Amino acid sequence: MGLDFVSNQEIILAARRNLSQNVWDYLTGGAESETTMRRNRRSLDSIAFRPRVLVDVSQIDTSTSFLGHKLRIPVMLAPIGSLQILAPGGGATVAMAAAEFGTINFVSSVTQPSLEETAASGSNPKIFQLYVHGDLKWVETILARAKKAGYAALCLTVDTAYYGRRERQMIDRWLPPARRVPPDPKHQASVTWETLDMVKEIAGLPFILKGVATAEDAAIAVQHGVDVIYVSNHGGRQLDHNRATIDMLPEIVQAVKGKAEIIMDGGILRGSDILKAIALGARAVAIGKLQGWGLAAAGKEGLVRVLELLENEILTVMGLLGVTRVNELSPAHVCKADPVTLPHEMSAFVNIPGGHVA
Known about the structure:
- The strands form 3 sheets. This protein has an 8-stranded parallel beta sheet with strand order 4-11-10-9-8-7-6-5.
- It has one domain (2-341): Aldolase class I (TIM Barrel), CATH 3.20.20.70.
- The longest helix is centred in the C-terminal third of the chain and has 33 residues, at 289-321.
- The protein has helices at residues 8-18, 21-28, 35-45, 90-101, 115-119, 136-148, 167-171, 177-180, 185-189, 193-203, 215-223, 245-256, 271-279, 289-321; strands at residues 47-49, 64-66, 69-71, 75-77, 105-108, 126-130, 153-157, 207-212, 228-231, 261-264, 284-287, 334-336.
- The radius of gyration is 19 Å and the shape is globular.
- Helix content is 41%, strand content 13%.
């Protein structure tokens, strides 16, 4: 079907046809009861728009910037481990798609191919995402490689002190490649603010802290000189019964007081989801599951098409909201509302038969 996809729900159905049950469950599921994952969706659906009319919206600019780099739309590609199980080329394919479309991709330290091969696969800026799976010497070695390869920034993920109980894949008796030889858990479990300071100094790059969920930690992060606060609950794959990231966002924006850029992920499936996050203070969002579905549907072309469809949705919503630039969005454009659908991983796509993909 390729470029004939007219909606991301068609891409999801194509991805399901291409993936085994094990890989589908790894990509699509969450932790334990999947309450956090569903809250991400419910809370996005609990926000309504307040459109303004009689505004000239004949020319709309959907672009923004992040750490000084231009983004065609305020969407980046979140780090995903074991990308290679979704499409040939794994992280390198993602880099090529990001470069073709005009955005930034985060490269997980546990994905394949190597960080060097992935860096060389596209001319776009890339961000290296680090899981601490060794001592400081190990950190020094891998960050030296990332700097030599030309990564534009470092992202330290800190919401994985313990690997979440992802029961869909547990019941399958299946693990993704990155978990088949599990790292020594003591390293990730012992990361502290002091560790952050040392990693930040070693990196010498713009520094992103991923996994921030409270105003308290956001304020501490700013005191430690973090450049970007990445609001995330790991797509509902780590702590169950966590809050939705869109619910975390306002208090974090207030705590940061403009001293760092703020991005978020968590349940982002629609252009409208993206603009709700921007209105509430995020500079941009990152997509994880939707990125994976695009890859699984049609490789690089499938992922580029995901981004094109999001761009079309963003353009439509901006025009109907009465805004011509992303930075015109504000909390005045949104309000609380009652959701009208039960939240689950497919509830943003009402035309998927049965409301889900088995």
